[in-house]
Structures are given as C-alpha cells and as structure tokens.
Amino acid sequence: AQQGHIREKTYGKQKIYFANQEQLPAASEAELRSLDGEISARGAAVQELQQSCRHLEAELKDLNSSMTTTEMGREVEELRRECGAYVEKLERMKSASNHVTPEEKEKVCSEQKLYCKEWRRRKRMATELLDAILEGYPKSKKQFFEEVGIETDEDHQVTLPAAV
C-alpha cells in the first residue's frame, strides 16, 4: 500500500485493500467493442455446447433404458420356449381322444332343455301367485318384494336361455 500497488480504505474499524486501477492501461472503444463481440461469440458457443450436451444426455438415457443384445437374446429364447410349450399343448389338445361323444352331448342338451322348461314353469307359477297377492296389496310391487325379501332374476341380470 505504501508503494502504491494496492490501495487501502478504512471503514470504521475495518480496512479494505484493492488493486490500484490508475496504474492499469485504459482500453479504447475499439478494444471494448472487440471484447464485447468476443464475449457474445463465446456465449453463443457455450449455448450451442450446452444444447449438444443435453441432446447427448437424452440419447445416453435412451440407450441405458433399452435392452442390451444379450438381454434381447435371452428374451427371444424365453419367448421361443413359451411358444414351443404352447404348440405342444395345442398338439396334445388336437390329438386328445377324450372328446365328448354325440350321445353324451345329446344327453346334456336334453337335460338342459328339461331344466329350462321347469325353470320357466316355476317362474310363471310364482309370477301368477305374486300377481294374485298384489291385487289387494296397497303398496307397489317393488315395495312388496323388498318387505318379503323376494329376489327376481332381473335383480341379478339373469335371463333364461333361448329355447333350442
């Protein structure tokens, strides 16, 4: 500070030292403009490099999240094994000798017809009986069903099979 290379300022009990800028050469307007141009050019280059870096990072992320060649090979082998198992199962099903005989099929169909016929008959009987009760009942059909605890096929979205 005594030689004049740095300056000293006192603020209360504190002392601040800084370079003496009077000894530094002053820049001309042309130098300042060229420095500003250089700053803007380097700023643009930095922006371009940051954008390129972001693009490369995104590409790296995509590559890291995709399967490797060995993983793909293992996946292909696994799928081939599964496919082979399904083909074998299909062949066993096609060659099975325990198919339903026409007699058994006819028996099952006739039983289904019988049960459906009985279902319709019982439903008709119940409907006629309930209609007779409801003739003298002061409330609605729905309220009566709720009080008595009757559940209908329609309550459970059940329909009779079509007559064959």
TrEMBL record:
GO terms for biological process: homologous chromosome pairing at meiosis; meiotic joint molecule formation; meiotic strand invasion involved in reciprocal meiotic recombination. Signal peptide: none annotated. Residues 100-155 form the Leucine zipper with capping helix domain. InterPro entries: LZ3wCH, WH-like_DNA-bd_sf. One of its GO terms (cellular component) is condensed nuclear chromosome. Pfam families: LZ3wCH. The keyword ATP-binding does not apply. Residues 46-96 form a coiled coil. One of its GO terms (molecular function) is double-stranded DNA binding. It is found in: Nucleus. Its main location: nucleus. Keywords: Coiled coil, DNA recombination, Meiosis, Nucleus. It comes from the Eukaryota. PANTHER family: HOMOLOGOUS-PAIRING PROTEIN 2 HOMOLOG (PTHR15938:SF0), TBP-1 INTERACTING PROTEIN (PTHR15938). This is HOP2 protein. It comes from Crotophaga sulcirostris (Groove-billed ani). The lineage of its organism: Eukaryota, Metazoa, Chordata, Craniata, Vertebrata. The gene is Psmc3ip.
